[in-house]
Specification:
This protein is of the alpha/beta class. It has 15 helices and 9 strands. It has one domain: 3-Layer(aba) Sandwich (Deoxyhypusine Synthase), CATH 3.40.910.10.
Length: about 350
């Protein structure tokens, strides 16, 4: 669109009343300016993705599950609003605490960490986790889960699927795990940096006993590209940036730069981030910049970046979608990955 004119909407003189709901709030955001406007537009774009039947990838960086965001991910999965995920290992690892009833509590950020260390308290900003009661207990659970299986090359989606199956069967509160819901709804959960997390640390003792974990990371990125290739329309909701963001967006270059398919990348991307674009890091790189790499089809439409704290902006966006969109039939991509891979392989060799 050409924005080089004076045809925009009038800025309202905002009025709020006690009976207003989430729709009213998002409309206020969308009609203002700055990041409030961006948040309003992001919420509406998310609804557009859902209505258009887009295959939606949720990427999660940082540690969102220790503050309870796994419950949001679970809800979106079960409503059919998230079809596959790319997460840090931390989010999968810490989510399991809730399913097994391991203590995670509010703490404070203005503390003496020397004292916390002596009291066996681990801190993530203002969230407290017990060292022995929670982390060591979780390590034993994950280690036990990984004791059998994984004897042949595997992907992190297969690792997460096995974890969801184990947690559903063994844990006290399986309903408190988005990984279990992902297992139930066949939502692939890829862990972009498995070795950079406690999940990998929990494999150390097995490896010292000569159990080899052979991660097939190349099959993994081919599967991810195959998901994008088979989608009628494709969108990403990015919480933060980091490796999960790049993993989802590099599907475009895989299809174009490597396989020469001329695909063009994503139809829609929403990013919520506090990273700046001028430092050269991928976390802050604009979505428009991704067009030069073939990561997105159109740099002018259906891309929204919200510069805000994810813990504030994402629940608003979620509630707006839940309030306005009917549940979608799950795409159950996990069960289709093998066929998607074979299709991509056949198409490539026909072209070459």
């Amino acid at each position: 669109m050409d924005y080089h004119n004076f045809k925009g909407k009038p800025i309202p003189h905002i009025k709020m009343t006690p009976d207003m709901g989430i729709n009213d709030l998002v409309e206020i955001f969308a009609s203002t300016g700055y990041n409030g406007r961006q948040l309003g537009e992001a919420a509406k774009l998310y609804c557009k993705m859902i209505e258009d039947g887009a295959t939606i990838c949720l990427t999660v960086s940082g540690a969102m599950t220790p503050v309870g965001f796994g419950g949001l991910f679970k809800t979106l999965i079960e409503r059919g609003f998230v079809d596959w995920m790319i997460s840090t290992g931390a989010n999968v690892y810490h989510e399991d605490h809730f399913a097994w009833g391991l203590p995670v509590k509010q703490g404070h950020f203005d503390v003496d960490d020397m004292i916390l260390y002596d009291k066996d308290i681990v801190r993530i900003r203002d969230v407290y986790i017990k060292g022995t009661e929670t982390l060591l207990a979780q390590d034993k659970i994950t280690e036990q889960m990984a004791k059998s299986g994984f004897d042949s090359p595997f992907t992190t989606a297969e690792f997460s699927n096995a974890m969801g199956k184990y947690t559903k069967k063994k844990s006290k509160y399986p309903q408190k795990s988005f990984v279990v819901s992902a297992y139930d709804y066949d939502v692939p959960v890829y862990i972009s940096t498995l070795k950079d997390s406690s999940l990998a640390l929990d494999l150390v003792r097995h490896r010292l006993k000569n159990k080899i974990f052979n991660l097939d990371f190349v099959r993994e990125i081919i599967e991810q590209a195959a998901i994008v290739y088979h989608a009628k329309k494709m969108g990403i909701v990015e919480l933060g940036g980091g490796v999960p963001k790049n993993t989802a967006q590099q599907t475009g270059p895989i299809l174009d730069q490597i396989l020469d398919f001329g695909h063009g990348g994503q139809n829609y991307i929403i990013q919520i981030t506090d990273a700046r674009p001028d430092t050269g890091g991928l976390s802050g790189a604009t979505l428009q910049e991704g067009k030069s790499w073939g990561k997105i089809k159109d740099s002018r439409e259906d891309v929204v970046t919200v510069y805000a704290d994810t813990t504030i902006a994402f629940p608003i966006m979620c509630l707006y979608a839940l309030s306005n969109e009917k549940p979608r039939k799950p795409k159950r991509l996990y069960k289709k990955l093998g066929q998607y891979y074979k299709n991509l392989e056949e198409i490539y060799f026909k072209k070459h």
